[in-house]
Input
Amino acid sequence: MATPLARARGLGAGHGGTGHFIKQRATAIAHLALVPFVLYAGAALATGEARTFFASPVHQALSVLAAISIATHMRIGMQVIIEDYIHHETRRWALLALNAFAAYGAAVVAIVSLLALGR
Amino acid sequence: MSIAHRITGAALYFGALAAAAWLAAMASGGDAAALARDAARSLPGQAVLFLATWALFHHMLGGMRHLLWDTGRGYSLPAIEWLARGTLAGGLLLNLLFWAAL
Output
């Protein structure tokens, strides 16, 4: 949805154009369906065994989807917070990078862990 | 209310990092898994989880409010006040219901 002019101008103040707006809404809508599963998983993990819960491929698949969707959503959300409050350019870029690593790194850790638990 | 949406979002961000760490501990087995299990079942752990699920419900209802606004609806002053009250009360109520059902 970026026009040639928008591309040339750097896509607005956040340098991201409409992509983030759409991704945030898309993941939010996905979460409306996934949050009940996440809560169900939380309850099961609290009362039962993690290995039993993650033995099911359906639980594994939904958990992986949740991890990816949540990572995207939380990364964009935190990016907006960083851009709103940090104006020192080097500090901002450092935090934005840390944000991306933390969000996607945590998703990879979670996915690898739950697949290991399910094996 | 919008700052509450931001604050709950930030809290959930760190909650998600903690959840990933918890899963890693469980998958590692041994002492790490025992520590993670005990921490989650401890009283402070349960208190943190209670607040975390509250933040989740509040953030989710707030998010639905934002999605409604995206469609152009709900901008009248009475609507805004009711949506704010609904988010606050609904979040708390859903959390209490969830924990009662556990």
Observations:
- Chain B has four helices and no strands.
